[in-house]
C-alpha cells in the first residue's frame, strides 16, 4: 500500500509546469513547420530527411534532459525509471536512458547501447559548438540499425549527466513519410491555428509568470511591500493571491523580528524565532566571559540633570556600547540602570571569548575617551565607565516564568564580574586572575597592576589585574573600528 502511494505521488510530480507548457507550444509550432518543409523537399533532397530526424531527436533528447534535471538532482531513481518507461511507450522512440556524469546508467528502457560500451560511445565528445550529438549503432539481436541522440543535463554551469533517446532509422523514416502524406492537406490550417494559439497562449501565460518573477525578485531584495495588482480567476490568479499573502506574512514576520530584536539580543531572537515551539525555561552550563560597564558617579549626575537629559545621555552611550559589542563578537544581554552587561562566548560558542571581552573593554575605554572629547567640545557633560570582566562556568538560558522570561546568564563568575566593575576606578578595566590563562590574553593584552581585593560574598581575597591596553599591533585595527563607530552614529 505504501509502495502504491509512493508511485502515485511520483506520478503526480511529473505534471508539466506552466512554464513548460509555453515551451511545448513553441516546440509543437516549430515541429509543424519542419514537417511542412519536409513534405515539400523530402523526395528531392534526401539529406534533409536526416537533418529533420536529427532535429527531432535533438528536441526529444533535450526535453528528456529538461524533464530529468530535477530528478537527477534529487537522486530519484524511481522517478527516472517512470520517465524513461513512459517515453519508450511512444512508438517512435525505441529506447531512452539517463546516464550519470561518470557514465553510470541511472535508468534505461527499450533499446540503448550496451552498458559496457557507454564509455566508448563518445558521451563527452560532442562536435564543437553543439550541445546534443548523435551516434549510430547496430542491435544484433533485433537486427536493426539505430540512432541515439545524447544531450547533457545541465544545472547552472554543471553537467549532471546525459539523456539518451534511441530511434529506429527505418521506423522514423516510415513514420515521417506516412505522417506527411496524411497531414499534407490540413498542415497549413494547423500551422495557422498553431501560430495564433501560440501567441494567445504564450501571451496569457508569459505575462503573469513575468509578474511573479518580478515580484519574487522584489521580495528577495527585501521589498516586502510589493504586491501583484493583477487579478485573475484561474490557477495563476490563485497563485498571485497566495504570493501576496506570503509577502504580507513575511512583512509581518520581519516586523516582529525587528521589534523582538530591540528587546532581546539579535542572535538570541533569531534562535528563539526559529525554534518557537521549543522555547522553555532552563539553560545549560557553559564557559564564557561576562563584562559589566558601570557609569561612575551616576547618582550625582542624576541630581544635576533632568530626567530627559539623563535619558538622552544613557541612550547615546548605550547605543555606542551596543554597536561596539556587536563589532567585537559580544552579545548585549541587558541594561540594568546605569550598567550594561555584555556576554562573550554565549549564546554562540567562541573559543577566544576572554580575549574578545578584554579587547572590547579596551576599545570601549578608548571610544568613551573620544566621545567625551566630542561632548566637551559641544558643551555637554562627559561620563566615565568602570569596567569589570570575568570568565568561567555559568548557566546560560531562558530564566523567569512561563508567562514572562528572558535570556541571561547566572553564576558565581557573573557575580564576580559585577563586583569587579564596582571596585574599578573611573576609566579602569579590572579582570580576574583566571582571565590571564585564556587563549591570546597573555600574548595580546598589556597587564598593569596586581591587587588582591576583598569582594563581598567571597570568603577569600580575589586576585585581580588592571588592563592597560592591547598590544600595539592591534591598535590600528582598533582605532579604525572606533572611527567607524563614531562616523556611523553621526551619519545615522
Description:
This protein has 492 residues and is α+β, with helices and mostly antiparallel strands. It folds into 3 domains: 2-184, PAS domain (Beta-Lactamase), CATH 3.30.450; 200-260, Helicase, Ruva Protein, domain 3 (Orthogonal Bundle); 278-491, Alpha-Beta Plaits, CATH 3.30.70. The protein is 50% helix and 23% strand. The strands form 2 sheets. Strands 6, 7, 8, 9, 10, 11, 12 and 13 form an 8-stranded mixed sheet that branches. A 5-stranded antiparallel sheet has the order 2-1-5-4-3. The model has no long low-confidence stretch (mean pLDDT 77).
Q: Ends: how far apart?
A: 63 Å
Q: Average the pLDDT over all residues and give the rounded result.
A: 77
How many β-strand stretches?
13
Q: How big a fraction of the residues is strand?
A: 15-25%
- The CATH class of the largest domain turns out to be Alpha Beta
Q: Segments where pLDDT lies below 50 for 5+ residues?
A: none
List the helices and strands and how they pair.
Blueprint: H1 2-12, H2 18-41, H3 46-73, H4 77-88, E1 95-100, E2 105-110, E3 133-139, E4 144-155, E5 158-168, H5 169-183, H6 187-220, H7 235-263, H8 266-274, E6 282-295, H9 298-304, H10 307-327, E7 331-336, E8 339-344, H11 353-377, E9 385-400, E10 405-410, H12 412-423, E11 429-432, H13 441-444, E12 445-453, E13 462-470, H14 475-491
Parallel strand pairs: 9-11
Antiparallel strand pairs: 1-2, 1-5, 3-4, 4-5, 6-8, 6-9, 7-8, 9-10, 11-13, 12-13
Helix pairs in contact: 2-3, 2-5, 2-6, 3-4, 6-7, 7-8, 10-11, 10-14, 11-14
Amino acid at each position: 500500500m505504501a509502495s502504491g502511494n509512493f508511485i502515485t505521488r511520483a506520478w503526480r510530480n511529473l505534471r508539466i509546469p506552466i512554464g513548460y507548457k509555453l515551451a511545448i507550444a513553441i516546440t509543437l509550432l516549430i515541429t509543424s513547420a519542419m514537417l511542412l518543409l519536409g513534405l515539400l523537399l523530402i523526395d528531392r533532397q534526401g539529406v534533409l530527411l536526416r537533418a529533420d530526424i536529427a532535429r527531432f531527436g535533438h528536441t526529444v533528447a533535450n526535453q528528456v534532459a529538461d524533464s530529468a534535471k530535477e530528478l537527477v538532482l534529487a537522486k530519484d531513481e524511481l522517478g527516472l525509471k517512470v520517465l524513461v518507461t513512459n517515453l519508450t511507450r511512444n512508438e517512435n522512440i525505441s529506447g531512452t536512458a539517463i546516464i550519470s556524469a561518470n557514465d553510470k546508467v541511472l535508468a534505461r528502457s527499450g533499446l540503448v547501447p550496451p552498458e559496457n560500451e557507454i564509455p566508448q560511445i563518445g558521451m563527452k565528445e560532442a562536435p564543437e559548438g553543439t550541445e546534443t550529438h548523435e551516434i549510430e549503432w547496430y542491435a544484433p539481436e533485433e537486427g536493426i540499425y539505430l540512432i541515439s541522440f545524447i544531450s547533457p543535463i545541465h544545472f547552472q554551469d554543471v553537467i549532471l549527466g546525459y539523456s539518451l533517446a534511441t530511434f529506429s532509422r527505418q521506423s522514423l523514416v516510415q513514420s515521417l513519410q506516412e505522417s506527411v502524406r496524411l497531414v499534407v492537406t490540413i498542415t497549413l490550417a494547423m500551422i495557422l491555428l498553431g501560430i495564433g494559439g501560440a501567441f494567445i497562449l504564450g501571451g496569457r501565460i508569459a505575462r503573469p509568470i513575468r509578474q511573479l518573477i518580478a515580484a519574487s525578485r522584489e521580495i528577495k531584495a527585501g521589498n516586502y511591500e510589493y504586491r501583484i495588482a493583477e487579478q485573475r480567476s484561474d490557477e495563476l490568479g490563485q497563485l498571485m493571491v497566495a504570493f501576496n499573502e506570503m509577502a504580507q506574512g513575511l512583512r509581518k514576520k520581519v516586523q516582529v523580528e525587528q521589534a523582538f530584536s530591540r528587546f532581546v539580543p539579535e542572535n538570541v531572537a533569531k534562535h528563539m524565532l526559529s525554534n518557537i515551539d521549543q522555547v522553555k525555561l532552563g539553560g545549560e552550563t557553559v564557559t564564557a566571559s561576562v563584562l559589566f560597564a558601570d557609569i561612575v558617579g551616576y547618582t550625582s549626575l542624576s541630581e544635576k540633570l533632568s530626567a530627559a537629559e539623563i535619558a538622552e545621555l544613557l541612550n547615546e552611550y548605550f547605543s555606542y556600547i551596543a554597536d561596539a559589542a556587536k563589532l567585537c563578537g559580544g552579545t548585549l544581554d541587558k541594561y540594568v540602570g546605569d550598567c550594561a552587561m555584555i556576554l562573550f562566548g554565549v549564546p554562540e560558542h567562541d573559543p577566544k571569548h576572554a580575549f574578545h571581552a578584554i579587547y572590547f573593554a579596551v576599545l570601549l575605554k578608548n571610544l568613551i575617551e573620544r566621545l567625551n572629547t566630542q561632548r566637551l567640545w559641544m558643551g555637554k557633560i562627559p561620563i566615565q565607565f568602570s569596567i569589570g570582566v570575568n570568565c568561567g562556568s555559568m548557566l546560560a538560558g531562558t530564566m523567569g516564568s512561563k508567562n514572562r522570561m528572558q535570556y541571561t546568564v547566572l553564576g558565581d563568575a557573573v557575580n564576580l564580574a559585577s563586583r569587579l566593575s564596582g571596585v574599578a576606578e573611573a576609566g579602569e578595566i579590572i579582570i580576574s586572575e583566571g582571565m590571564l590563562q585564556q587563549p591570546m590574553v597573555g600574548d595580546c593584552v598589556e597587564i598593569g597592576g596586581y591587587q588582591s581585593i576583598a569582594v563581598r560574598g567571597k570568603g577569600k581575597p580575589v586576585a585581580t589585574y588592571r588592563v592597560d591596553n592591547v598590544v600595539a599591533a592591534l591598535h590600528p585595527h582598533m582605532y579604525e573600528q572606533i572611527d567607524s563607530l563614531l562616523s556611523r552614529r553621526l551619519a545615522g
